[in-house]
Amino acid sequence: MTTEAVSSWQRFHRHVRELWPRRALVPIVLFAGWPLYCIAIGERRWEFAVSIFLGAVLPYIGPTSKRVFVGIMPIAMVGLFYDWMRFVKNVGLSPERIHLCDLRALEIRLFGVDLGDRVGTIHDRIQSTPSLPLDVLFAIPYGTFIGVSALFALFLYFVDYQAMRRFSGAFLVLNVLAFVTYRLYPAAPPWYFHAHGCVADLATHASEGPNLARVDEWLGFRYFGGFYARSTNVFGAVPSLHVAYPLLAAIEGFRPFGELRHARWLKWPLRIASVLFFLWMCAAAVYLDHHWILDLICGCLYALAVCLAFRKIRFFALVDGRLDAPLPATH
């Protein structure tokens, strides 16, 4: 190694140690290590490039980029947890423990609709009259909610960094609670009942459902089918994270939406838009046959509980390489 190379390495090492006095390799191990392992065993996914950038580049550019990484890290952790669920697929599950027709019966008792010859669910009525335009309309929030959550977090970075940390931390905790619930109360979604009836089969693969399958056919490629093919949570209908995410954003965004110094006129349009996106997602979750109404209620309760908890406790953050560091000041 030449003298110039040694000198460059020493400068880079000092730069990293100044940014990360402790635990400097945590970002690389978490967000670059896992994608590299997956690539080594033959997996190829575009998001691996994003994860490697997130773990091996962004945290080490400078103080500002580190601040962005620290703020968005909990949301990125959800992607890792989602992938790691493959190692606990069906752990603790049995056909007898899965809530299927008992959950549907409760749905009918609380929200049943008259189908003429019987009382059923609103899902039964929707599935009896397929409509591609409605499929596409309600596929939009389903296809964009992850990107919307990430963009919302970046918006908070520029407006209210503490709100960004609270949102991303709550996002992570919300997902962990949901993953635990999937094991404690495994529940089949409506599409499963319509495809398989009341027979719970642990060998069943996750599906995008008939509505999103029609959207994929219309698009000409398997966007939703490819996403759900990687899911290991067939029996994870309760709670609905699809509705919990936009509700969390609507709550955390209410105050920051009013703090745009040069665009205060956007305060109420943004607040209303966040609520409308939440309601759009609620309608989509039911229309697309992915969630019972009961799932939506549970998802909302989880989001409200996590929001309340994060306002009552002091959320510690990984800042300046120390887990016990105070939260950075807001902009």
Strand order in the largest sheet: 1-2
Helix content: 55-70%
The major sheet is characterized as: 2 strands, antiparallel
Helix and strand content put the structural class at mainly alpha
How many extended strands? 4
Q: Any low-confidence stretches, pLDDT <50, length ≥5?
A: 316-331
Q: Tell me the number of helical segments per DSSP (H or I, 4 or more residues long).
A: 16
Strand content: under 5%
CA radius of gyration is 22 Å
The geometry reads as globular
Describe the secondary structure blueprint for this structure.
Layout: H1 3-19, H2 26-31, H3 33-40, H4 47-56, H5 58-61, H6 63-84, H7 101-111, E1 113-114, E2 119-120, H8 122-127, H9 132-159, H10 161-184, H11 190-196, H12 209-219, H13 223-229, H14 241-253, H15 267-287, H16 293-312, E3 317-319, E4 322-325
Helix pairs in contact: 3-4, 6-9, 6-10, 9-10, 9-12, 9-14, 9-15, 10-14, 10-16, 14-15, 14-16
3D architecture notes:
This protein is mainly α. The protein has 2 domains: 1-91, no CATH class; 96-325, no CATH class. It has 16 helices and 4 strands. The protein has helices spanning 3-19, 26-31, 33-40, 47-56, 58-61, 63-84, 101-111, 122-127, 132-159, 161-184, 190-196, 209-219, 223-229, 241-253, 267-287, 293-312; strands spanning 113-114, 119-120, 317-319, 322-325. It has a two-stranded antiparallel sheet with strand order 1-2. Strands 3-4 form a two-stranded antiparallel ribbon. A hairpin with a 2-residue loop joins strand 3 (317-319) and strand 4. Helix 3 runs antiparallel to helix 4 (47-56), helix 6 (63-84) runs parallel beside helix 10 (161-184) and helix 14 (241-253) crosses helix 16 (293-312). It is globular. The model is unreliable at 316-331 (pLDDT under 50).
